Fold:
Amino acid sequence: MHPHRRQLALGALALACGLAFAPAQAQPAYPAKPISIVVSYPPGSDTDSIARMLAERLSQRLNQAVIVDNKPGAGGTLGNAFVGRAAPDGYTLLFTPNPFTTAPMVLRLSPSSSYDVLHGFEPVIQIATQPLVLVAHPGVGAKSVPALVGLARSGKSLTYATPGAGSPMHIVGEWLNRAAGVKFTHVPYRGVAPSVNDVVAGHVDTAWVTLGVVSQYTQQKRLLPLAIGDATRSPLAPEVPTLTELGFKDVVVGAWNGFFAPKGTPPEVVRLLNGHLNEIIKSPEVVSKLATFGALPVGGAPDVLAKTNATEYQVMGKLIKELAITAD
Structure:
């Protein structure tokens, strides 16, 4: 080849290589812009409040804005599906409680709110567990679950409130019905606050809720805590027995929450977020704040959340079918 032509060819090759590698070299370090945490529930909920607390601390660590974006609707599935379809770049995350797993089993979802529970997301971290508690209005006349069951068996009509049909609270309520051979009538609400307000007012007899939202009422004796839905007593309410202790074998349902990212989010981004959030939830200040929501920190690798989600899908899915639970 003529020397001049060879120089031109080599120059063209160098230019092509430079162009090929330029985008990778110019890629800014993550995070280079604000991060959005989608919460599929309205502002003011436990999930929203915990997300905002974590967002503030994550922002400080990453030196980047971390914004909570509320996208409520369709039992939380609209926001979940939104994140499932988002770009897998680490800038859109989902913070969700465990109805993430069960909602598609009890709701008739439109294409816009459907998502793949097991394979459509990258688990980032399980933040906490929240024990469920059965509380009763003092006017019911029962200070224990056996006494409550005795009233139902004697013919008294009793009701239980939950934050919504198909929620973990609904599942444990119907499971207790089956285990005890009684029929407490389910009264579903749209959210925790109205369900708690109505049991405090005596409009419904009992309610299944998380510990944090009723702690002030149990301390004031305006509500009586009768049982915990977890397998073991909660350190946040050690005096309250579990359903299994009271003879209702294997009736165990709890609540949990965690972060997911869209499927395909780079592993290094997941690791970075997981590391920061693990450190955040270990801080005494955050542990104390989580306790006010009746929540206990979990943390660990992304696999912890993946296993929790998969177990929930299998166990709760079986129960939902057996108990014919729907959100209709």
